[in-house]
TrEMBL record:
The species this protein was found in: Pelagerythrobacter aerophilus
Transmembrane segments: none
E.C. numbers: 2.7.9.1
Entries under PROSITE patterns matching the protein: PEP_ENZYMES_PHOS_SITE
Record family assignment: Belongs to the PEP-utilizing enzyme family.
Protein name: Pyruvate, phosphate dikinase
Annotated segments matching region Disordered: 1-23
Domain of life where this protein originates: Bacteria
Active site as annotated: H469, C845
Domain (PEP-utilising enzyme mobile) ranges: 436-517
Residues engaged in binding substrate: R575, R631, E759, G780, T781, N782, D783
Length: 885
C-alpha cells in the first residue's frame, strides 16, 4: 500500500487514503486539500502514520520501499520548485514536520531549513542575493536540528547567541549582520562537535533521514505521552511526517511569518485574529522571541500598540490572506487556525485546521454559523464538545465585587480562577495533589510545564502573546490564562514574585480574570452561571433533537433547584442516606442501628419520620409535576456508626444505654467487606420497619405537596441491590401496603412506581423475572461496574491509572462505562426487562450518566433517560442530542 503521498505542484487530489487524516495526519491531509483548491502551498510529501507505527514496532528501521518512495517524492518537490536537494549552487531546502491525526500543540518537533551545509549555504547566499538571510537560516537549522534530532541542549545555543549579541551590544536578533551569523554558525558547529565528538552532519540525505527518524521517535517522547494521557489520545495512532519545500519569512522586511484564526478563538467573535512577525521564521511567533505584532489595524488600535499591523505594513499580502481566510472558512465550514509565511511579498499557506476554541467561542461560532447559513442546526449541535460546557457551568467572578488589580495582561484564555501562587510545574502538581488550588506563575511556559498547567486552576505568564504556548494550551485545557502580564518578575531563588510595586511570595492567593486579562490580589467573590444567550439557544436546539430525557442526581432542594434551572426533567437518583447524616439526625439514626430489637428501632424511626418527610416535601415542591426516583436506604449500616469516645458518650446520653453496651453492639455490626455485606434491600428484608418509615415519609410528603400546590410529583420508589425476584416481590408488597395506608389516611390517591436498581450481575441476568415485579429499572452502573469487574471503586485509584496507561482499560471504567463488558449486561437486562414488561421505564443513575461516551451508549440500547449531577445536566442534554443525531 502507498506509504508516501505528494501534494502541491501537479499532484491530483483523488486518493481517498490521502484525504484520510488517520492515514496522512491532520497537517498532511489539510496541506493536500489546500493545494487542491488552488491555494499557494509549498509542494511536499507525507509519510503515513501507518509507516510510523510500523517503524516504532520494528525497532526503528526504514524499509527499502520507503527509501525508494521518499526519493521519488523528493523529485516531485525538486521538479515543482526547480531546485535540487543538496545542490551547492542553488539548493532546495525543506522542513520536516510531524502531524498526528489530531493536533498535539507543541508536542512534536519541527525542523526547518533542512538541506543546508557548508557548501549549500554559499549557494543559498548567491542564489537569493542575500547572504545574511542564508547564514541566518543556517544557524537556525543547526540549532533546531541539534535540539530535535541530535538531542543536544538548546540552552547551549541560546547562550551562545546571547553572548554574541551582548558582545555587539545588540538587543534584537534582527540587528545581527551577515558576519555575525557566520561567526555564530562557527561557534554552533564547535558546540556540536564538542558535545558529539563528531562534526555536524553535512550529508543532506543523512540530515533528512535523521529528521524523519526524530519525528517518528517523538511520538513516544514523554511530553507526547503526557499530552495523550490528558487528552485521551490512544498511543497506537502514530504520527505522519511531512517534508515540504521551505518558504522564507526571514528574507528581509517584505517577508514575515504568522499565525491566525479566522474568528476570535476566545470569544468567538467574527474578526480576524492573529499575530505576525516581519523578517522572522516559523516558531519565532509562538516562542515569544520578539513581541509579535497585530494582524489587523483595528486590533492594533484597540490595544494601543505602535508597531504596524500586517494590514498596514503589507496591505497586499494581507488582502490575499483575508481572501484565503474566507475561502477556507467556506470550504471547511468551520473556524480555521492558520499558519502562513510571506516570502518577498508573496503569501504561502503552511497549515490549516479547525481551531481550538473556548466553550464560549464554540457556542457563539456554532450559533453564528447557523445564522450565516454556513451550517445547519444539527451540525451546530454536533460541533460543541459537551465536556467543554463544563467551563461555563462554574461560577464566574462577580462583576460587582471589589478587585485589587495588580496588573493587566493579555486575556489569553477566559474564565476566572483563584488559588495560591506556585512558581513551577512540579510544585503545582504537588500542591494540587494535596488538595490546594494553585495558580501557576511562569515567565513563559513550555511543553515541560504541561502537567503543572493541568494541575493549576489558572496560568499567569510574564511574557508571550495570544498564541504563545501558555495561551494555546490553556485554551485547550479550559484553564483561565493571562499571558504577557507587564510588570511581573519572578525570583526563583527566594520563591517570590513582584507585580508592579507589590511583593508576593509563593503560597499567596491570586485571582485571574482570563476574559479581561486582570491579575488580582486575594480572592474575588463569584456568581453562579446562567444558561442565557448562545448557550440557551444551543440547548434549545439540542432539546429538539434528543430522544432521551435528562434527569438529575440530587438530594437537597438547592441541588434540585439548580438542576431544574439547568433543564433537568426529574430526579433520577435521590440518595436518602445522605439525609441521614445531617447533624440533628445522626443520633436518631445511630439509635436505630444500635437498637437491640424491632421495638427499639421503631422508637428511633418514629423520630426520623417527620424529618425525612420534611426533606421529601421540600424536594417534591421543587420538582412538582416531574418524576422523582427515590432510593430507599442503601449503604452498609456501619457507615453511620459512632467513632471515638465522644460520639459514643453523646449517644449514651441520648439513648440512656451504657457506652459499653453500645460499643459491643457496634462491634457486632462490624463487617469484613461491607460493600458486599448487610446493605441495600438486605436492610429492608431484615428490618422492614426502616423501609416502611421511608415509604411512609415519601407518600405523606407527596400527598401534602399535591394538596398544597395542586401539582403532585410522581414518586418512583427504588429498591437497591436487588439480586432476586423474591426480594423485590416482598419489598414491593411492603411499599404498596404503606402507599395504600397513607392514601386511605389522606383520602387521595397518587400515581407512583416501584422499581429497582440493576447493579448486580445476577440482577442483569435475571432481569426478565425481576421485571415482573418492577415497573422501572435504573442501571446503577457504579456498583454494576464494581461487581462486574470485581474492582472496588474506593480502592482502585492505585492500580487504575497504570491500567489505563498500559491500555488495559481505554479509560477509567468508573468515569466512562466499560461498554464492552458492563455494557453487555446493561443491554441484556434492558432487552430481557422489555420482553417481560414492554412499557418498563429504563434509566441510568451511575456517574456514567454525565459522561458523553456512556450517554451515547445509553441511547443505543434505548434507555428512556439518563441522570447526572446538577452541573452535568446541560452536558448530558447536549450529549443525548448528539447521540440521537
Ligand atoms: P507545529 O505542529 O508545532 O505547529 P509545524 O510543523 O506547523 O509545527 O511547524 C512550525 C512552524 O514552522 C510553522 O508554523 C511554520 O511557520 C514553520 N514552517 C514549517 N514548514 C515550513 C516551510 N516549509 N516553510 C516555511 N516555514 C515552515
Ligand atoms: Mg512544534
Ligand atoms: Mg503548526
Amino acid at each position: 500500500e502507498q506509504t508516501v503521498f505528494t501534494f502541491g505542484g501537479d499532484t491530483p487530489h483523488t486518493n481517498a487514503r490521502q484525504k484520510d487524516k488517520t492515514v496522512t495526519g491532520g497537517k498532511g491531509a489539510n496541506l493536500a486539500e489546500m493545494a487542491s483548491i488552488g491555494l499557494p502551498v509549498p509542494p511536499g510529501f507525507t509519510i503515513t502514520t501507518e509507516e510510523c507505527v510500523r517503524y516504532l514496532k520494528h525497532g526503528g528501521d526504514f524499509s527499502n520501499e520507503l527509501r525508494a518512495e521518499v526519493a521519488k517524492a523528493l523529485e516531485h518537490i525538486e521538479k515543482t520548485v526547480g531546485k535540487r536537494f543538496g545542490d551547492a549552487a542553488d539548493p532546495l531546502l525543506v522542513s520536516v514536520r510531524s502531524g498526528a491525526r489530531v493536533s498535539m500543540p507543541g508536542m512534536m518537533d519541527t525542523v526547518l531549513n533542512l538541506g543546508l551545509n557548508d557548501d549549500t549555504v554559499e549557494g543559498l547566499a548567491a542564489a537569493s542575493g542575500d547572504p545574511r538571510f542564508a547564514w541566518d537560516s543556517y544557524r537556525r537549522f543547526i540549532q533546531m536540528y541539534s535540539d530535535v534530532v541530535l538531542g543536544l541542549d538548546h540552552g547551549l545555543f541560546e547562550e551562545a547567541l546571547e553572548i554574541a549579541k551582548e558582545d555587539k551590544g545588540f538587543y534584537n536578533d534582527t540587528e545581527m549582520e551577515c558576519e555575525d551569523w557566520q561567526a555564530l554558525v562557527g561557534e554552533y558547529k564547535r558546540i556540536v562537535a564538542d558535545a558529539l565528538g563528531e562534526p555536524f552532519p553535512q550529508d543532506v540525505s543523512r540530515q533528512l533521514w535523521g529528521a524523519i527518524r526524530a519525528v517518528f521517535d517523538s511520538w513516544d517522547s514523554e511530553r507526547a505521552k503526557v499530552y495523550r494521557r490528558l487528552n485521551d489520545i490512544p498511543g497506537d495512532w502514530g504520527t505522519a511526517v511531512n517534508v515540504q519545500a521551505m518558504v522564507f519569512g526571514n528574507m528581509g522586511d517584505t517577508s514575515a511569518t504568522g499565525v491566525a484564526f479566522t474568528r476570535d478563538p476566545a470569544t468567538g467573535e467574527k474578526v480576524y485574529y492573529g499575530e505576525y512577525l516581519i523578517n522572522a521564521q516559523g516558531e519565532d511567533v509562538v516562542a515569544g522571541i520578539r513581541t509579535p505584532q497585530y494582524l489587523t489595524k483595528t486590533a492594533r488600535e484597540a490595544a494601543g500598540a505602535k508597531p504596524l499591523s500586517m494590514e498596514e505594513a503589507m496591505p497586499e499580502a494581507y488582502a490575499e490572506l483575508a481572501r484565503v481566510f474566507d475561502l477556507l472558512e467556506r470550504h471547511y465550514r468551520d473556524m480555521q487556525d492558520i499558519e502562513f509565511t510571506v516570502e518577498r511579498g508573496k503569501l504561502w499557506m503552511l497549515q490549516t485546521r479547525s481551531g481550538k476554541r473556548t466553550a464560549t467561542a464554540a457556542l457563539k461560532m456554532a450559533v453564528d454559523m447557523v445564522g450565516e447559513g454556513l451550517i445547519s442546526e444539527e451540525e451546530a449541535v454536533l460541533r460543541v464538545d459537551p465536556m467543554a460546557l463544563d467551563q461555563l457551568l462554574h461560577p464566574t467572578l462577580d462583576p460587582d465585587a471589589p478587585r485589587d488589580v495588580l496588573t493587566t495582561g493579555l486575556p489569553a484564555s477566559p474564565g476566572a480562577a483563584s488559588g495560591r501562587i506556585v512558581l513551577d510545574a512540579d510544585t503545582a502538581e504537588q500542591w494540587s495533589q494535596r488538595g490546594e488550588k494553585v495558580i501557576l506563575v511562569r515567565v513563559e511556559t513550555s511543553p515541560e510545564d504541561i502537567h503543572g498547567m493541568h494541575a493549576a486552576q489558572g496560568i499567569l505568564t510574564a511574557r508571550g502573546g495570544m498564541t504563545s504556548h501558555a495561551a494555546v494550551v490553556a485554551r485547550g485545557m479550559g484553564r483561565p490564562c493571562v499571558s504577557g502580564a507587564p510588570g511581573v518578575s519572578i525570583d526563583l531563588k527566594t520563591r517570590t514574585l513582584r507585580i508592579g510595586e507589590r511583593e508576593l511570595a509563593e503560597g499567596d492567593t491570586l485571582t485571574l480574570d482570563g476574559s479581561k486579562g486582570q491579575v488580582m490580589a486575594g480572592e474575588v467573590a463569584t456568581v453562579e452561571p446562567e444558561l442565557a444567550g448562545d448557550f440557551g439557544t444551543l440547548m434549545e436546539w439540542a432539546d429538539r433533537h434528543r430522544r432521551m430525557k435528562v434527569r438529575t442526581n440530587a438530594e437537597t432542594p438547592a441541588d434540585c433547584r439548580m438542576a431544574r434551572q439547568f433543564g433537568a426533567e426529574g430526579i433520577g437518583l435521590c440518595r436518602t442516606e445522605h439525609m441521614f447524616f445531617d447533624a440533628g439526625r445522626i443520633s436518631a439514626v445511630r439509635e436505630m442501628i444500635l437498637a437491640e430489637n424491632e421495638q427499639g428501632r421503631r422508637a428511633a424511626l418514629a423520630k426520623l419520620l417527620p424529618e425525612q418527610r420534611a426533606d421529601f416535601r421540600e424536594i417534591f415542591a421543587v420538582m412538582a409535576g416531574l418524576p422523582c426516583t427515590i432510593r430507599l436506604l442503601d449503604p452498609p449500616l456501619h457507615e453511620f456508626l459512632p467513632h471515638g469516645d465522644a460520639e459514643f458518650a453523646e449517644l449514651a446520653e441520648v439513648t440512656g444505654v451504657g457506652v459499653d453496651r453500645l460499643r459491643r453492639r457496634a462491634d457486632e455490626l462490624h463487617e469484613f467487606n461491607p460493600m458486599l455485606g448487610h446493605r441495600g434491600c438486605r436492610l429492608g428484608i431484615t428490618y422492614p420497619e426502616i423501609y416502611e418509615m421511608q415509604a411512609r415519609a415519601i407518600f405523606e410528603a407527596a400527598c401534602e405537596v399535591a394538596e398544597r400546590s395542586g401539582e403532585a410529583p410522581v414518586p418512583e420508589v427504588m429498591i437497591p441491590l436487588i439480586a432476586t425476584r423474591r426480594e423485590l416481590e416482598l419489598l414491593r408488597a411492603l411499599v404498596d401496603r404503606v402507599a395504600g395506608e397513607v392514601f386511605a389516611e389522606k383520602a387521595r390517591t397518587l400515581e407512583y412506581l416501584v422499581g429497582t436498581m440493576i447493579e448486580l450481575p445476577r440482577a442483569a441476568l435475571m432481569a426478565g423475572e425481576i421485571a415482573e415485579e418492577a415497573t422501572f429499572f435504573s442501571f446503577g452502573t457504579n456498583d454494576l461496574t464494581q461487581t462486574t469487574l470485581g474492582v472496588s471503586r474506593d480502592d482502585s485509584a492505585r492500580f487504575l491509572a497504570p491500567y489505563v496507561e498500559k491500555g488495559i482499560f481505554a479509560r477509567d471504567p468508573f468515569v466512562s462505562l466499560d461498554i464492552e463488558g458492563v455494557g453487555q449486561l446493561v443491554e441484556l437486562a434492558a432487552e430481557r426487562g422489555r420482553a417481560a414488561r414492554p412499557d418498563i421505564k429504563l434509566g441510568i443513575c451511575g456517574e456514567h450518566g454525565g459522561d458523553p461516551a456512556s450517554i451515547a451508549f445509553c441511547d443505543t440500547v434505548g434507555l428512556d433517560y439518563v441522570s447526572a449531577s446538577p452541573y452535568r445536566v446541560p452536558i448530558a442534554r447536549l450529549a443525548a442530542a448528539q447521540a440521537a443525531l
